[in-house]
Design a protein that fits this description.
Blueprint: E1 2-6, H1 13-26, E2 31-35, H2 41-51, H3 60-84, E3 88-92, H4 95-105, H5 110-121, E4 128-133, H6 136-149, H7 164-180, E5 185-189, H8 194-208
């Protein structure tokens, strides 16, 4: 099972993925966590380029292609081998992030992005996508608080430095994607505290995995 977590900066994806993985393991599932970009040695080098605030002038098309390159390697090297072994995969961001950030927010043609995804990964999609949704104002405030406290590094703050309007477009893009594929997406209110968010994630997973109780 391939499950992705999506959301804007500060939505709590990383924390919730780790908590969810521990819970699923307690339920008897063999579970791994991964992320895009940066889940492989090659991917970590791509991640350093993409998230470095010094690269604020990175061409939008080049940015998108770097994400696609990381994804192609990630799926081939990590995700598909794990799936063949029957593992449940929890992934921090996937192709929906490219549609939301580089498509809806940057303005790259959505159809072009979908064609590239089809060509590189044969339109490989998650079984379930959990969208942790909250306002960009709240998300950015949380993200910068984490950076100020040292929980997140300034070396990966390129997107946090984008203007509020950019993040509003990202959120709107995510919600549009969820509207287009309601059978795959579950929208989680990420404005609540961590325990409440985790409870709602467990309910969503339990409805998707009938054998798992929240």
């Amino acid at each position: 099972m391939f499950i992705t977590f999506e959301g804007i900066e500060g939505s709590g994806k990383t924390t919730q993925i780790q908590t969810t993985a521990s819970w699923l393991k307690q339920k008897g599932l063999t579970c791994i966590t991964t992320r895009e970009p940066g889940s492989t040695d090659i991917g970590s080098k791509i991640r350093a380029i993409l998230l470095d605030p010094l690269n604020k002038n990175l061409d939008h098309m080049a940015e998108m292609l770097l994400y696609m390159a990381d994804r192609a390697h990630h799926i081939g090297a990590v995700v598909k081998p794990a799936l063949t072994k029957g593992k449940t995969i929890l992934c921090d961001r996937y192709f929906d992030a490219t549609l939301a950030y580089q498509g809806y927010a940057r303005g790259i043609d959505i159809d072009l992005l979908k064609k590239l995804h089809l060509l590189t990964l044969n339109d490989f999609k998650p079984d379930l996508t959990l969208l942790l949704d909250l306002s960009p104002e709240t998300g950015l405030a949380r993200a910068w608080e984490q950076i100020d406290l040292g929980a997140r590094t300034t070396a990966e703050s390129r997107f946090e430095n984008e203007k509020l309007n950019f993040h509003q477009k990202v959120r709107a893009g995510y919600l549009e994607l969820a509207k287009q594929e309601p059978e795959r997406f579950r929208i989680i209110d990420a404005s609540q505290n961590e325990d409440q968010v985790q409870e709602n994630i467990r309910k969503a997973l339990s409805s998707f995995f009938p054998v798992i109780k929240p």
